[in-house]
């Protein structure tokens, strides 16, 4: 058979070596590598979890072509689910806070997803509550990325092994933004199996910061897939730190990514300032073109 189905092209994303952002760390023998998840078909790391959750649910007979899925999302997971749903013949309703960027909403709609918006004040917690209510009324099947083990399993089976292989087992630190926490949970699980000394660093927003894709969850909404023991350390990143690093990534490294990637890279530099002869891998979660309307990349 010639070619591949689109969802079969997810993963095997490259590691880009950071060249200019960390000269003092480089002088101490540190290497920072960004895993370019924007190279996935729908443009983000969430392609992995979306495909895992949908394909495994179909394998188990829980959903079939023509069924409707309902999911709360802040953006990237929704885009990824919409792409996979389109590929596999499923219908999809996505619920998101109204203040998420217009590019993300347009991308979801382009794939054929139906959108429902909740207010900024209701936020992701309100979106999750509405998804659960719709499922209870029989209006669709909720995959629930926050509780679905097929989310971290995607990263245990793909992201972790790719990092281990690409670094030839030399990775010493893994730095990841924490949203649903699927990426950090699955990757940590795999890397710690290979070498328990690999340090896993989670990134969350400082108090009051609103960084798309990174969350500080209230206890009652903490994703049930999250296992605190799999994270060695958590770093808080402020809004201005994340946004400035996002701009620097584009200007100084040629990597145009989203704000959560800027937050993760800022954390990676904090780690680098404390160590030497380290191989630090961080997730560059998505592409920056879906954030143009936010003003993070000023035109003048």
Automatic annotation (TrEMBL):
Catalytic activity: O-acetyl-L-serine + hydrogen sulfide = L-cysteine + acetate
Enzyme Commission designation: 2.5.1.47
Molecular function, one GO term: cysteine synthase activity
PROSITE patterns: CYS_SYNTHASE (PS00901)
Binding locations of pyridoxal 5'-phosphate: 76, 179-183, 260
Pfam families xrefs: PALP
Reported cofactor(s): pyridoxal 5'-phosphate
Associated pathway: Amino-acid biosynthesis; L-cysteine biosynthesis; L-cysteine from L-serine: step 2/2
Record PTM N6-(pyridoxal phosphate)lysine, positions in chain: 46
Record-annotated Tryptophan synthase beta chain-like PALP domain positions: 7-286
Family the entry assigns: Belongs to the cysteine synthase/cystathionine beta-synthase family.
Name this polypeptide is given: Cysteine synthase
Organism in which the protein naturally occurs: Guyparkeria halophila
Taxon lineage: Bacteria, Pseudomonadati, Pseudomonadota, Gammaproteobacteria, Chromatiales
Gene: cysM
